Amino acid sequence: MPEIKVTAKKLERRKKRTKFAKITLLILLVLFVLIYIVLGIIYKGGRFTITLDPNFSLESGITLYESLNNRSKTNKLYASDIDFMDNIALEWIPDTVDSGSDGGPHNDNNYIAYTFYLANEGKEILNYWQEVHIDDVIKGVDEAIRIVIYQNGERTVYAKKNALTNTNEPNTEAFYSDDLPVLRGRKDFKPGDIDKYTIVIFIEGNDPDCVNELLGGEIKMHMDIREEHKEQKK
């Protein structure tokens, strides 16, 4: 039987390799934990929120409601999430998606739908801005996403421009920018006026950019309602 000799140098090298492997595993573990925490913060509270600038609300008397039947004032609303969203077509969304709900979440299997109200309970005629921000995108799912906004029954569909032709998708308004897809102004909001909004978010299957590579993608967005629009520094 051959004799096996283990020298001090070999033992030292073995200890170094073991120590290096442990440190590497520890670093990877810490990295995974940090990624999990960051993603948890990003996606906490669902995929879509609506926020009313509290200073604007306090000074103007503008109020945010989820329902007119239960007028509980708030400065932030949360749309409920869905676990999986398959691609569909705009025509598949029922015509009653705006009129059929008094308020709050009313999702379907493949789209997010949320209705809320903005009321001017102050004494002055106001102007305000609606800003929809994209906070995070995974796997480029924003290339085929649709953001539908019903304002007092009037529908507008927003989509990113075609990646190949750089032109608007049919029957849509182009995103204002990659990070700020929707920027809308509301003028002459009189005392006593109530604006009804329904937000619908889905993936358009007829979009040329709706490809298999988007599978598993996610998107996080929020809407801000404020007195004035301020350009964000890049």
Set down the secondary structure blueprint:
Layout: H1 8-42, E1 48-52, H2 54-60, E2 62-65, E3 76-79, E4 104-105, E5 112-120, E6 126-138, E7 145-151, E8 154-159, E9 173-174, E10 182-189, E11 194-203, E12 218-226
Parallel strand pairs: 1-12, 8-9
Antiparallel strand pairs: 1-3, 2-5, 4-5, 5-11, 6-10, 6-12, 7-8, 7-11
Question: What does the main sheet amount to?
Answer: 7 strands, mixed
Quickly give the structural class: alpha+beta
Contiguous uncertain segments of 5+ residues: 31-46
The coarse silhouette is: globular
Secondary-structure element order, as H and E?
HEHEEEEEEEEEEE
Summed over residues and divided by their number, the pLDDT gives a mean of 82
Structure in words:
The protein has 234 residues and is α+β, with helices and mostly antiparallel strands. It has two domains: 1-42; 45-226, no CATH class. The protein is 18% helix and 34% strand. The chain has helices at 8-42, 54-60, and strands at residues 48-52, 62-65, 76-79, 104-105, 112-120, 126-138, 145-151, 154-159, 173-174, 182-189, 194-203, 218-226. Strands 2, 4, 5, 7, 8, 9 and 11 form a seven-stranded mixed β-sheet that branches. Strands 3-1-12-6-10 form a five-stranded mixed β-sheet. Strand 7 (145-151) and strand 8 (154-159) form a beta hairpin. The longest helix has 35 residues, at 8-42.
